Each structure stands twice: as structure tokens, then as C-alpha cells.
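Here is an idea for our session: we take a single protein and study its fold together. Once you have written the record down, we can walk along the chain together.
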Amino acid sequence: MTLTLDPDRDLSAVVAEQPDPLLFATVSGAHLYGFPSRDSDVDLRGAHLLPVDALIGLREPEETRSRMWFRDGVEMDLVTHDLRKFARLMLRRNGYVLEQLTSPLVAHTTDTHAELVSLVPELLTRHHAHHYRGFAGTQWRLFETSGELKPLLYTYRALLTGIHLMRSGEVQAHLPTLVGEVAEAPARLPELIAAKTAAEHGRADVGPEAVRAETEALHGVLDEAQAASGLPEAVSVHDALHDLVVRARLEHAQG
């Protein structure tokens, strides 16, 4: 995968400006999904590490931080969660945070990031299908309202990611890759991806009934893949994730 924009060019300054250590930052959104346009936002997502005293006093900790800025006319967006909050999101069968964690488009990384990634296989359950089913439904409603290609491709991407995850146990968010790996992927997808890369807010030049039939069929495939999946019913890594969070916090406090 390649980025049309290079967020590392100024990320060193962004990392230095963070009030607490940044454990990782990766690129999410359309760049990760494989259909960025020239003016697509660059979504950076990750985790930071609050000091112990921020968590044990009376003040509410700043668990989520965000920063937005523009470079060369393109919006850059950095959102990070404290490690404890990020770990809790990982345990909630949230495919979105696992995609951020495992994104191959890495802007900043640490040993803690690598440890978190190593736990991902033990976090995956068949219930992650609910996340992708729900996300696809939300994006489909946006497509019905706007007629734009972006939410339509997000719909296809979510369904194919869910199907692939249920069958393989692998988090794969890159739509062009999924087209080659999921046999039921609609033949029109490469054409739609090309159209989206040409225009961020381009409209979908497709018959709504045809794409409705395709997405409904993919919902059925996801249901079948979930029912047949070899993934477990529940996560088995809660204690290991707890230990990682405690150890990372104490190591930072000591030095």
C-alpha cells in the first residue's frame, strides 16, 4: 500500500508537541481502505500514555485528545486515546480500533505498539461481525442520503472486511486487496474505486437497486461466514492486556 501524502514529513513535530508520550500513530480512513482521492483527509489514529498522577487524583483525565491542521490544503487529523481507554476499546469487539492498531501505514511506533499488535489474534471473536454489519448499515444510509461514492465504498469495505475476518481470522481493511480475496466481491468495485480516487465527493454513477441487491447479498454472506466461523465466542486475553497497560504505565513512571 502507498500513501499519496506523507504524514511523517511533519509528524516528528506533532509527536514532540504531545504533552505525554505517543505510543503509536497510524493512518486510517480512505488511505488505509485503499481509495484516497487527491484531497482526502489524512486520519492519524493512535494511543498516548498518561502519567500515573493524572489517573489517581480528583481531576478527570484527558483520555482522548485530538488535533487538526492543514498541510498543502489537505486536512490532517490526529486523534489518540490514553492506553487504558484504547485497551478497553480493544476488548469491546471494536473492529475500528483493531484496524487502527494493525494499519500497515505506520507514522510512529514503539515497543508497546508492537506488543498490542501481537495480542490482536486473541482479541478476535465471531461477534466482531456485528461491528461490520452495523458500520455498513450506517454508511449505506449515508449513501442513500447523499448519493456519493465514498459512503457506498465504505459500505462494501465494511462488509468485505467482516466476511474476510470471519473466514480467515485476519483484519484486512484494504478494499483492493479484499476484492482479490473475497470471492463474492462485486465485479464493479475496481471501477468504483478508480472513480472515488478521482473525486473525493463524486457521486455514484450506479443504479441504486443494483448496488442495494449487491450489499444485501453481502450481508447474507457475512451472516453465513459468522455462523461458520472458527473464531471464538469471547476474548481470551483480558489479563495479558491488563498486565501490558500496568507495566507500560509503571515503566514510564520509573523512568
About this structure: Residues 39 and 219 are 31 Å apart (CA to CA).
